[in-house]
Write a structure and sequence with these properties.
By secondary structure, the protein is an all-alpha fold. It has two domains: 2-42; 53-279, MetI-like (MetI-like fold). It has helices spanning 2-10, 15-18, 21-42, 53-64, 74-105, 107-121, 125-136, 140-164, 168-176, 181-218, 224-233, 237-265, 267-279. The radius of gyration is 24 Å and the shape is globular.
Length: 280
């Protein structure tokens, strides 16, 4: 009689037990939509404060049904905002990682550069955005620069933390084996710092969308930020909510993409976290 029990215990857990969010997330979403509908239709919340879900859905469908090459649709402006965010993300993240490793490697450079970097980072980016528009114009350059500045600091801090997380004994052992600085960087420092770098990339991927929108608020001819300003001035609240939904989806997709890259290139950290969760 013990064999069936052992076979049942040896079965791998079902998908629902391993991924309960696949069931809980849709339930939460439906509950929020129902609550939203009750607030707007049953409790009399004004449309200019909170439009009904159906109005937002119709605005979303109408905006997405337009050709992506037509400036009157959502797809055209979404592509521009995503392109600005992607370029700024790549530039800001790359500079942040390289400068972070340089600061962590050289104590003299850290004392010289870090106070200026922290002081610049403390400046409000909304106040800097008009300057970037003046310097780079109303084209894509200004928005990319704003996004680069916003995404720069998370990678700088995490690359410094990742460099300092390396065990010094491993570096000393590699040097005793006549390893070059480039070999130490590629074989020891980068693999050890990858979990920190991906943590910074997760934050920067969301901040990149914010940077592009801030730049479009200040001065732009196209983009989702421009549409938000236009709908706000015209008091068209339902299309504004539709654009906010698009921004939320874009931010979520970018975060998922970073997590997939993390699972591909930093798989040992993923296994460690799963083991810890299993022990808890």
């Amino acid at each position: 009689m013990s064999a069936p029990v052992e076979d049942r215990d040896a079965r791998p857990p079902s998908l629902i037990r391993r991924r309960p969010e696949l069931i809980l997330s849709p339930i939460v979403l439906v509950g929020l939509i129902v609550l939203w509908d009750v607030l707007t239709r049953r409790m009399g919340v004004p449309v200019f404060i909170l439009p009904p879900p159906m109005d937002v859905w119709l605005s979303l469908v109408a905006g997405l049904s337009v050709s992506p090459f037509n400036a009157g649709g959502f797809l055209y402006h979404t592509a521009i905002t995503m392109w600005e965010a992607l370029l700024g993300f790549l530039i800001g993240s790359s500079v942040g990682i390289m400068l972070g490793f340089l600061i962590a490697y050289s104590r003299l450079f850290e004392k010289l550069a870090l106070p200026y970097i922290v002081g610049f980072q403390s400046l409000p980016k909304v106040a800097l955005a008009p300057l970037f528009v003046i310097w780079f114009g109303f084209g894509i350059e200004g928005k990319v620069m704003i996004t680069s500045v916003i995404t720069f600091f998370p990678l700088l801090v995490n690359s410094i933390a990742g460099y300092h997380s390396v065990d010094p004994d491993r570096i000393d052992l590699a040097r005793s084996c006549n390893a070059s600085d480039f070999q130490i960087l590629r074989k020891i420092i980068l693999p050890s710092a990858l979990p920190f770098l991906f943590a910074g990339l997760n934050v920067a991927s969301v901040l990149a969308i914010l940077g592009a929108i801030v730049g479009e608020f200040v001065g732009a001819r196209s983009g989702l930020g421009v549409l938000l300003m236009q709908y706000n001035q015209a008091m068209q609240i339902a299309p504004m909510f539709a654009i906010l939904l698009i921004l939320g989806v874009v931010g979520y997709v970018s975060n998922v993409a970073i997590r997939l890259l993390e699972r591909r290139f930093c798989f040992w950290a993923q296994r460690g976290s799963h083991f810890t969760d299993g022990q808890g």
